[in-house]
Write a structure and sequence with these properties.
globular, three-stranded antiparallel beta sheet, alpha/beta, seven-stranded mixed beta sheet
Length: 298
């Protein structure tokens, strides 16, 4: 039986960080009429210098270098023993076992390093629950099959506050992460509603600080994917239950693996296994075990 390899990045991650520019966040996209498949196909056709990486010679196993998050609990993170853990890792272990032509080698690293690792060919694959957006799809090859879904967006606020729709946020101060899909969502809303705009504050913060900002009234609300919001409500005090108010219109709620153009065979092979695991219930079981609910079906 083949064994997957785990490499803990230190020096490489530091070097990649220096190269890292502005990256889009890892939330789901919104509002675009262009599908991920259409953009992927177009960009793949125009990709200069890309060549299909065919499978290795018969009987030879290709090592796939995977840049994967190291602190995004419960999706991909290092546990108390500094071992890779989480939903995405467990899914990939099953995928690896079903593809004997590949062996997966994992490098846990910070989110911002993963795309740079793809850019520099340090990684063959990027894993960090990447949401789909048009700008990123023009540069990277998206999986067609999501590894999980976000369940849509929800509006989080401190206890005692209740916002059901984006219109309820008119005049409110909302924190977003720079270049995130949530930022894109609110920017598009403001453009379409000039007389009822949301005050967008761009600030990259860790989860604990975001919740503190909400509870202490620094900001009025925060928009997050349902899958993440469900984790926060369990982990942190002072956040109001969002009830049934889920924003799904125009939202691609999939979370996808990323590849470089030219690696369509690898993408296709992994997609086929993800589809199988979705249909046979494996993704559902792992989602319930690691995420607390079934986010495998969309």
């Amino acid at each position: 039986m083949k064994k997957s390899k785990l490499i803990k990045a230190v020096s490489l991650a530091a070097a990649l960080t220096l190269l890292c520019g502005s990256l889009a966040g890892c939330s789901s996209s919104s509002g675009s009429e262009t599908t991920a498949a259409e953009t992927t196909a177009a960009a793949g056709t125009e990709s200069a210098g890309s060549t299909e990486e065919a499978a290795s010679a018969e009987g030879e196993v290709r090592t796939i270098k995977i840049g994967i998050g190291n602190s995004y609990n419960p999706f991909c993170y290092l546990d108390a023993n500094e071992e890779l853990a989480g939903y995405e890792y467990e899914v990939l272990k099953v995928v690896d076992e079903k593809l004997p032509q590949y062996t997966f080698e994992y490098e846990p690293t910070g989110f911002s390093n993963i795309l740079v690792g793809l850019d520099t060919d340090a990684y063959d694959m990027g894993v960090h629950t990447f949401g789909w957006n048009e700008e990123r799809a023009a540069k990277y090859l998206y999986a067609e099959e999501p590894s999980t879904t976000t369940g849509g967006y929800v509006i989080l606020a401190a206890e005692g506050k209740d916002y059901e729709t984006l219109a309820d946020l008119a005049g409110k101060k909302i924190q977003v992460k720079n270049s995130s899909n949530v930022a894109n969502l609110l920017e598009a809303y403001n453009e379409a509603n000039p007389d009822a705009q949301v005050e967008i504050v761009y600030e990259d913060s860790e989860n604990e600080q975001i919740v503190s900002n909400l509870v202490n009234g620094v900001y009025d609300a925060y928009i997050n994917e349902k899958v993440d919001a469900d984790q926060w409500i369990v982990q942190f005090d002072g956040i109001a239950e969002y009830g049934d108010h889920v924003l799904t219109d125009g939202v691609n709620s999939g979370c996808y693996y990323l590849y470089n153009y030219g690696d369509e065979q690898l993408q296709s092979d992994i997609d086929a296994v993800l589809k199988e695991l979705r249909e046979d219930g494996t993704l559902s079981e792992l989602s319930i075990e690691y995420l607390g609910a079934d986010y495998s079906q969309g």
